[in-house]
Records
---
Amino acid sequence: MFDFKFDWCKEMEVGVSIIDAQHQELFRIGRDLEQLIFRSKNVTTQELLNLICELREYTSYHFYTEEDLMATYNFPSTNQHTIAHNKFRTNIMDINLPLLGKYPDQVLPQLKESLQDFLFNHIMTADRELGLYIVKQVS
């Protein structure tokens, strides 16, 4: 049975509306990825490319937003947070598109696990810390 994991819940919120809204959009992209896995034998190359492009573009946009907020509020853990962003950004830029196109049933689940692990761990630790810091600064 396929294991769906990209269900947003209130416990994932970090308390900064723009970050929470963008995280929800990343979860939507994750759900789209799950749907492609579910039917990976019949997925088109265009669908794969669209998903990867959207993931890359939206991740960059989201990281830019967070990094701008970190600079605006002089967040003390900016360096570590940015290092995590850069590592994940590199991971998604390094997705082997020819391999994905040839073996989507193998590559998509690996991509899902990578995205899932990063999002859950990063949101619940680094982004939560950032959110608490920003909320404290604006209070």
---
Amino acid sequence: MLRRTFFSLFTGLLLAGMVGLTGCGGSDRPPLGQVTGTVTLDGQPLVGVNIIFSPDDGRAAAATTDAEGKYELQYLADAKGCKVGPNTMYLEWPPEAEDAVPIPAGYTSATGQKVEVKEGSNVIDFPIKSE
């Protein structure tokens, strides 16, 4: 009886360990490219605007431009970058933005700009002109 109980306990622990290991095998995160750049409007930094890269399929990556108009995309809280492949880039002001200048056509969520993100480091600047 003791032998049978030990065998059942051992088998249960072994199976539980195997099930636990199957979830640790790989990441469902797609290949990411590191994306940085500068957004300017008529030669001046566009400060505090959200820049979003949205792939045809999957999670978008985003950033907010700093005082110099620079950005670095973030895919997840613990992962910088953007999904490799074709993306549509667009800009939007955060709801709390004051004195926000209009975003020119071609850079809004309705239209956007097509960009290609490659593996490794990508520097993608957006020198935008007013309409």
---
Amino acid sequence: MSADDKPLLPRWRDRYAGVSMRDLAVLLAPVLLLSLAAIWTALWFLEPAPPNHITITAGPDNSLFRITADKYRDILARSGVKLEILSSSGSLENLRRLADPAFRVDVGFVQGGVAAGVPLDKLVSLGSVFHQPLLLFYRAPQALEWLSDLRGRRLAIGPEGSGTRELALTLLKANGIEPGGLTTLLDLAGGEAAQAVADGNADAAFLMGDSAALPTVIMLLRTPGVQLFSFKQADAYTRQFRYLNALNLPMGTFDLGKNEPAQDTQLIGPTVELVAREKLHPALSDLLIETAQQVHGGATLMQRAGEFPAPLEHEFRVSDEARRYYKSGKGFMYRSLPFWLASLVDRALFIVLPVVFLLLPGLRVVPALYRWRIRSRIYRWYGGLIALERRALADPSVETKESLLQRLDDIEKAVNAVKIPLAFAEHFYILRGHIRFVRDHLQGGTRW
């Protein structure tokens, strides 16, 4: 059997027989150290694995905020992420919880206009998710035209911590109505506020999504003597308070058959943002925005299809991860694999790729360095042979030749002790031939 006919593994074993593990260790050590340094650097900058549990602060039970959070919970569960929902008074309490580092919460619904006096530097927006119309129901024999007409009446403006209360106080103040005057302000919200107006125990109630549900609104629309306030100055309000939007509620929106409401109604209201702490894991940020698209992406009474979620920057800066998502969508891994598997693969690639870029070029250089190391081990004896030849030329006496032959014996003995892989046997035997050549000349006395 010829050498070419031998199986690959035995041929490789024959070729590299005698390879020194010490030589390989010396050459591989720098490559391995660089790879370990790359792994350490990758781990330093690598985000931890996304948690499978997050907490959202929503609103009171049965409020729009709470109903929305329930939808988020069901969708996130499909990706293996558990959403814990915390009840709250509304937007302001949600914002205070998010701004408090001691409070355990990750995200929350916050309407515009409630951020005054709250530190926002550690908070980011994942996008605006829906309009939040302000609904003002009141009892009066005739339609009221201006908010200032509510002076001296009993007004349900919501409890402390609710976005409804904050906005109501802001609008009332703009119309010259402040706490402590003739107007009575009631800390009632949602169903309680609506029932107080329906029973005649309150003259008006401010209702928003963080404190009221659709059935409550329908009940008031059908209560005799109760009317829905139309903001004729809607454009003026939006100019003075930039976080507000002018919204139109067409007649018959809630019930076409009964034509509820009975006429077009001008409303105002902020948008609601999905606010998170800036340390929220990027993978969870993507997952929450994707969830928001499923929940808020369709057409509703107050928005067009595809209008929300949107990276609209108001009081909160939109996070870099959110901007990237709105621009280019989810990464390839998260589009193609289940969330947990995509997270695992993404982290693995983050570590493996730097190592591959260092290790592969390094391993390609190692054979060349190894050849240079073995050949240098052989070639360094040529220096001794050349020095010996020059000495013989300079002093051809018998005593000098005997001394040189002794040194040549030492060189040959040392060369024979060198371990050389079979792949470099040719160079080894050439060196031995040159040693024999020098010996013949020293012993024969012939001219060089």
---
Amino acid sequence: MAYLPNSDRDRQEMLAALGLQDQRELFREIPGHLQNPRVDLPEPLSEFELGQEMRRLADANRPLSKWDCFLGAGIYSRFVPAIVRATIGRPEFYTAYTPYQAEASQGYLQTIFEFQSLVAELYDLDVANASMYDGATATAEGALLAVAHTGRERILASASLHPEILAVLTTYASGRGAELDLIPTRDGLTDTEAAERLLATGSEVAVVIAPQPNFWGLIEPTRDLVELAHRSGALALVVADPLAAAVLEPPGALGADLAASDGQQLGIPAQLGGPTVGLLACRQELVRRIPGRLVGMTKDSAGERAYCLTLQTREQHIRRERATSNICTNHALMALAATAYMAKMGEAGMREVADISYRRAHELARRLTALPGFSLVHGEAPFLWEFALSCPGDAAVLAARLAERGILAGLPLGRFDPKRSNQLLVCATETSSPAAIERYEQAVRELAQAPAAAGARS
């Protein structure tokens, strides 16, 4: 911090205001092994040499299109229509910055307004904001909205949410001073009886958060959870897969007050896991608490249609104590990609994508569970396009062997829970061709004949 023009006295006054003794205490939440790491940099290179080195490194990349991809768990291999890339590649969008001057940003503001309209329609809710960073921040911001609206400090979240969403939610709740309780699962689904008990004990709950589908791809009893939340005076937030919302009852139809999700599946490539876009929608009564930006449509002095930033309830624009969130911005370019995708595909196209994905996932599950030692972790529980596969050995070893054959077999669940080291979360989408499914089955069949290669324990 030596570059900051603060005297030692200034720094001591700031530390005292924070109740700290030493500057190092500011970084106590950062694990020690990550602080001041040693970085072994190579010798400097000329511009020509650096270009050569960067090309060498780039050549080592293997695009997702070169694999048979069955990864899911929040980032999916989906078809992106050409019109999406053509739209976001236009310079007026690609180089646009924050639309502080509405009169100079009408096209940019219109795309955000259309994004909001499409997300609200998708989730059958009244209002959607201009986007969040990703699904995790959208969920956490929705939870804090509920805390502020109800005046209650307790959050109930299903343990079947994505573990990374739960991690971000934990961080947000701790910063707000809110209490976070997890609703346990039973047979892979949120335990509604446990949810009812948790709602009846302790302090009053601000919000109940449930996924649809859940992390393991299973269809949750979301309506029951929404009704339980409302019976106790809490809000209900559904973390709803946007493509699933095209074929299942959307959150609004279930009575939910809020919906959140990641919009990566809507025209955004996997691109190393990010950036993506967060979707957040709510009922009209909650609109003044929604974080980030909200674009509205009005008329200009000539009576023509015009767009403007209607609400900007963030620290940059209003007093900190009045802000709904300190989130800085929205992912406008990624939101534009999602807008172009939804406009191109329409309701029928999104339903078709969901239907194809469903059919191919169930065909893959049928083929794999026909092999000796393989079964569905959650039995006959209904799923969409992801399923947890029980393997005869270490799932991470099996996945590594399949990767050697050009197949990204899925996510080994031992990464999140050691008790699940023999389980693989597998996903099939519309990009999972019948030939790729057949190659997957054949590769697993061949590896199963050499148990050690497939990760089987001796």
